[in-house]
Q: What sequence folds into this?
């Protein structure tokens, strides 16, 4: 599929309002990204590659980050993103051809975008090229792909494919990055349950060994929490529908 037709299809989707997202999706998706950034200096430069309509950037703005950048493939995306996060600087470009020098940004994030690239391997290489310190990238889980195979779901995106987690590890390693945390298919969710059980049994060494980044909503984002009555539904959706593969990687050579 050529770039022109891809841009036209994305523009039509944005202008029709199909990519607006919901508060629930924002909590599930964006909290999994920003949890890695909460301890960082608010003055560090952060770029969201494939920023969509600015959902994650608006959350980062709310958290006090002041050097925000966004990249999207169409003007329609950028117009909507500016409405949500006006303080960010936006660039219209393809994720496979980012117009930035090497290590231009302290942190790079990409939320649910890489599976929609025409050339995902080149896109991952570009993410690794422009990051100086930390890269957080997410991709949809395989529940959607199974539903596609069974005929229950048909993607309306111009490009929509699944990437195996092991492929992510390989691409990140090839880009000079070291994965310091991975979450997918409820790993963090089940990990919390396992630590809780170990705590009750007094197995403190097990609890310490399995400690990881928590999935809980940061206090700063409580205002977008879902009502309590939807807790059971939310749990199942998180594990099997809106769950994602999340990779947090750092420069493997230790450069900051």
A:
């Amino acid at each position: 599929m050529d770039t022109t037709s891809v841009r036209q299809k994305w523009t039509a989707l944005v202008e029709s309002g199909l990519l607006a997202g919901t508060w629930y999706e924002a909590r599930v998706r964006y909290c999994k990204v920003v949890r890695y950034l909460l301890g960082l200096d608010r003055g560090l430069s952060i770029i969201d590659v494939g920023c969509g309509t600015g959902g994650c950037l608006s959350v980062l703005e709310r958290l006090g980050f002041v050097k925000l950048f966004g990249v999207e493939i169409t003007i329609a995306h950028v117009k909507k993103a500016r409405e949500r996060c006006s303080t960010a600087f936006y660039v219209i470009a393809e994720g496979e051809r980012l117009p930035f020098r090497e290590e231009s940004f302290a942190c790079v994030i990409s939320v649910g975008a890489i599976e929609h690239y025409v050339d995902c391997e080149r896109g991952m290489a570009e993410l690794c090229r422009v990051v100086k310190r930390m890269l957080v990238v997410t991709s949809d889980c395989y529940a959607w792909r199974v539903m596609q195979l069974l005929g229950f779901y048909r993607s309306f995106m111009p490009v929509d494919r699944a990437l195996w987690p092991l492929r992510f590890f390989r691409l990140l390693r090839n880009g000079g990055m070291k994965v310091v945390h991975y979450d997918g298919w409820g790993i963090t969710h089940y990990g919390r349950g396992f630590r809780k059980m170990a705590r009750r049994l007094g197995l403190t060494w097990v609890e310490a060994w399995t400690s990881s980044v928590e999935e809980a909503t940061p206090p700063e984002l409580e205002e977008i929490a879902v009502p309590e009555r939807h807790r059971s539904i939310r749990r199942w959706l998180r594990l099997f529908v809106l769950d994602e593969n999340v990779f947090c990687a750092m420069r493997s050579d230790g450069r900051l």
In short: DSSP finds ten helices and seven strands in the chain. The beta strands are 45-49, 67-72, 89-92, 105-111, 131-140, 177-183, 244-251. Confidence is low (pLDDT under 50) at residues 224-230.
